Structure prediction request, 389 residues.
Amino acid sequence: MKQQIVLLGATGSVGQSTLSILRDHPDRYSLFMASGHKNVEQMLALVTEFKPQHLVVTEAQAYKSLQQRWPASSQTQLHFGEQALLDLVAMAEVDAVVAAIVGAAGLLPTLAAAKAGKKIILANKESLVIAGELLMAEARRNHALLLPIDSEHNALFQCLPQGKVDLSVSSLLLTASGGPFREHSLEQLVQVTPAQACKHPNWSMGQKISVDSATLMNKGLELIEACWLFDVNADQVEVVVHPQSIIHSMVRYVDGSVLAQLGSPDMRIPIAHALAWPERIASGAQPLDFHQLASLTFEPPDLERFPCLVLAREAQHLAGLAPVYLNAANEEAVAAFLNGQLAFMDIAGVNAKVLAQVGVEPLESVSQLQHEDQRARAIAHQHIQRLAL
Ligand code: NAD
Ligand code: MG
Prediction:
């Protein structure tokens, strides 16, 4: 029996890498539903090639345009809006949900998959950052299997005993490439452009995560993600800069052993791992050529030039709504930077200011989270306007 796959965020970078694996393994996987936001051409292309039973579009203009261009012969049902996502994710025939929407917009469909007890292949780190407690509890309650495909967390999962932290583990070592500005001075960082920030040295990714990699916010979000996935506190997660992106993360054991997962920097490796787990399938990625690898180097992250990493640790220590505030601020600040409204170093500035305004109440429900998320975005906008270029 083929596994029926839901692919949330099919038009994005992770979405396209996932489709590449489905293309290579038509005997194992069938695309039940795909979702996209704005990219009409890519949605039409994937409907033609993969013939999913359902396509959900979450942006009104793109939906209109797709209605006009919908092929008369298509067997795929076209839907609009988030509610359609939530309904289809939970359908009985769905075996696995690949959560690859970017940002807080991915939360509700990921939660719906957890409620429905699905196998969740999680790329959307922001949902764990803002709602880790709620999402993990929902997954536990409904026996949903959560497999991370963020490359670092997938590496940790592979290096941990049974994918879990136990008393034999002393710490988790998240590796970071350091991004395109690893060697920039503070003066140079003030000048960098969106095009430079989106040009990651090792990975090809969506714009938002590329900017997050350049500020090291991505590693900060991943630190919080690791805490929820593996039930550890922030002090048990070390960050080490490894510019070659060959080691994707490591686990330190109490006896002094360190286990690492290595591979080409290609998202198809963690995606194939999670899709097939506990089996293994070909991913299409280039095998590592150890004769070509000149060296693997390591250095500590520079917290002065990359303060977002400090903010993320602080948010995880504060707990409650702090990660919600930090994530909302960061989404707005990154969007403003990409629009040419905000300077690169002001992303961290906006994030720090919004985080400083979080209240002390605990995170209790999704509706409270959404309300606070909107409030944090409004505060971020005030700061962005003040700092606007
Ligand atoms: P992307 O920008 O390339 O794609 C984002 C996807 O989300 C697109 O399909 C888009 O249509 C959809 N989307 C955007 N806004 C939406 C909204 N408001 N409602 C519904 N759908 C919306 O991003 P990406 O690089 O593929 O990253 C996706 C997620 O995976 C992010 O959370 C990112 O942090 C994580 N991730 C990505 C990579 C990578 O290599 N790209 C690696 C690890 C983790
Ligand atoms: Mg990552």
The chain has a mean pLDDT of 97. The pocket of nicotinamide-adenine-dinucleotide (ligand 1) is lined by residues 9-15, 36-37, 58, 100-102, 105, 123-126, 150, 203, 205-209, 267 (CB under 6 Å). The chain is about 45% helix and 15% strand. The two ends are 56 Å apart (CA to CA).
